[in-house]
# Entry
Amino acid sequence: MRTKTFDKFCELFGNEGDIRLYFSPGRVNLIGEHTDYNGGHVFPCALTIGTYGVARKREDSKLRFYSMNFESLGVIESDINALVNKKEDDWANYPKGVIWAFGEKGHNITSGMDMVIYGNIPNGSGLSSSASVEVLMGVILKDMFNIDVNMIDIALLGQYSENKFNGVNCGIMDQFAIAMGKENHAIFLDTADLSYQYAPIKLDGAKIVIACSNKKRGLGDSKYNERRSECETALSELKAKLDINSLGELTEDVFEANKSLINDADRVKRAKHAVYENQRTIKAVEALNAGDIDTFGKLMNASHVSLRDDYEVTGKELDTLVETAWEQDGVIGSRMTGAGFGGCTVSIVKDEAVDAFIENVGKVYLEKIGYAADFYVVEIGQGASRI
# Structure
């Protein structure tokens, strides 16, 4: 893929000058969903699939972007002095937003660039293709313009750009996992203070299998922002009595003793998910560190039930994939991953059962939904970098 991306760059923009190649992974979250903007814990890992980028600095202020995933859009042009979100610029609003965010935080970009990207993350899948592009752009800017930022800064700048430039009120998890990924490790991240530790993923005799529902989902026009708002309102109601700054600070018992402060049944369910999911994530990492993969799998399953019943972000497609997965031999755990409303599921499946799992779940999904799901047996890789 890196060769194809480089060749396309040369075809479009010429092969002279200082052309540089970069890679930014996708990510999957093993457990801890919709907790990152609620001050809770998450447990994502970077993948070996992701976004390749080839870029070269220009002498003028022009920006030229081309995606091999959206060839019909052609070269999208902009300018570092006119960075505004334009609907017709489609995917290019993500790298544009990062350039804008760097400037907002005092890191002025002094010239334009040409860039070609090529990703093998399914678009709209919930594996964070948008955050992959954002972190990719951050790494390119740091490298090309010798900007003094670290990888956590790049993650925060990516989140800021998505919040303020692209209007999606996302938390920090996606960008953090992509920027800070480590091979064969997941990141146990406390989103309240960005403290983190790497936890080795030792799935002896098992694989991570991602199922893409192929139901396209756009975060900005989903109910993602609505769920976040519901949690923020529930938090403000709880703060009438409790001295807390986030739902992630609560244990299950404290929440149950005070949930009557929340004046809406749906908001009670949303807050319950945020609290219980955070505690599930803490317990799941403890189980993994103790070598208890079966308990980890049961907590994954419980996570999906909560996302389905309390947070209501799954839908027929994801529920079909997960509930069919639970019926298969050799499945240790399965749940939706990402924001929901489409996208992907993540399952841990014993090696000898992987082929039958893909065949059986795929068959049921096609029969029930009417179109096929795609399956990926994935490996855990490094964070974004120049290559």
